[in-house]
Amino acid sequence: MTQPRLALNLFWRTFALLALLLIGSVLAWQQTFKALEAEPRALEAAQQLAGLVNLSRAALADADSINRVAVVKSLSRSEAVQVEVAEPGDRWLPYDVNAFSTRLAAELRGRLGPDTVVAREVNKVDGLWVRFSIDGDAYWLRTSPTPLSVSLSGNGWWALIALVATALGSAGIARLINQPLRELSVAAGRIREGEYDSRLDETTLTSEIREVNMGFNRMARELARMEEDRTVMLAGISHDLRTPLARLRLEAEMSVNDEQARQFMAQDIDQLDAIISKFMDYARPNETKLHAINLAELVEREAIAFRDPTQIRISADVPQHIKVWADETELGRVLLNLFENARRYGNQAGEPTQVEVDCLPAEAGHVLLRLRDHGPGVPPDKLASLTTPFYRGDAARTAATGAGLGLAIVDKSLQRIGAKLELANAEGGGLLTLIKLRQAS
After folding, report:
1. Strand, coil or helix: what is 285?
2. Phi, psi (5° rounding) for residue 214?
3. Could you give the 3-state DSSP secondary structure of residue 305?
4. Are 92 and 141 within 8 A, CB to CB?
5. Domain formed by 10-155, architecture
6. What pairs with residue 85 in β-bridges?
7. Which string of DSSP letters, residue by residue, matches 154-221?
């Protein structure tokens, strides 16, 4: 299954979405408050400035020309508010640069007259400048723009605290939302490992989670019952098969005169008995114990079981010194099923199956066992389905009747011993089976 390029678990995904939502809300509310604050501040500032202009205008209007110069000099020395004579060559920049300044300038013109000029810079000197006239003479009133502007600098700590609180709140909410799903994931993992007694809380207050937990618990109980039935069935089958096998062995030893045939029959019965013992292991699930197995001896032993050269001929080239970590019965079943699969489907019409077995070193600590037949092969789009239980390919490799379990058994048996299976079409025809095994020192 194709994995996404960027995969986030549900907690971080929920956290990120909640954090983005809440941070966006905080910033939106902050901008809203700023916009709502702008107009009252503009009105208040315009009222204060208009009062200063009117006060300055009254002081200058009541003074004669000589005293007016003294008043202007006196006001120009003030730190908060300064009055200067406007010159025809003065250069100034309009104060209207944003919503607040535009509203402030419009309010001042409404209070002082339409010819009032409001500037943010006069002759390259910053400030809030208001030009007014008295008896035909023009004057500039200058004050600092800082107290009359709307700024976010004073709200920096508040914004930082809001963002931190948003992040912590998002993490807490995400944890609360995802905790039941995490518990479900952990319980499903335990079920996958065979712990069918896993149960989830059915008393949670969230109705949807409660229903999911109840459904999961019902599924776990049903799986536990099915596993118990399977265990009893496998144990019963294994137990019942051993009695006729014992009788068969006794009858073969007593009635078969050919010593070699009697040995072959005894080997077959011993192999069946080992497989039945493995069924008993399946009925009592536990970890498969691996041993160092001589690979060449095992391949030779399983190849001997196919004694009819008119049906299959097996040539093995496996070094005698190579040992692998495996369960002898499991790996023997793997080879037995692969040889039988090749005998049935890996031959050309009218000819016996030719199987070649060899072993090559793989990556560090592993060896690669290769089996190849010279049959018709398998369509490339069917290769991935060959290990599916009860799956059978097209007629080219299903001339004989079969249940479609051979390669499925091979795959499961290799998984139990920590090996890997790969199927491919060989160059020149035939099916190529690759088994990667851990090498024993």
Report:
1. coil
2. -65, -40
3. coil
4. no
5. 2-Layer Sandwich (3.30)
6. 139
7. GGHHHHHHHHHHHHHHHHHHHHHHHHHHHHHHHHHHHHHTT-TT----S--S-HHHHHHHHHHHHHHH
Contact in structure between 152 and 31 (CB atoms under 8 Å): no
Instruction: State the Cα angle at 404 between 307 and 428, rounded to 5°.
Output: 65
139 strand-pairing partners: 85, 132
CB within 8 A of 274, min separation 6: which ones? 329, 332
Fold observed for domain 197-286: Helix Hairpins (1.10.287)
- Tokens at residue 153, please? 């600098």
pLDDT level of residue 221 (50, 70, 90 thresholds): confident
Angle formed by the axes of helices 207-255 and 156-192, nearest 10°: 30
Q: Which helix (H) or strand (E) is 139 found in, with range?
A: strand 137-143
Q: What is the pLDDT of residues 33-49, one digit of tens each?
A: 666 666 666 677 777 77
Average of pLDDT values for 349-363? 88
**Is the domain covering 287-440 a CATH 3.30.565.10 domain?**
yes
Going by the DSSP 8-state scheme, the letter that residue 137 receives in this structure is: E
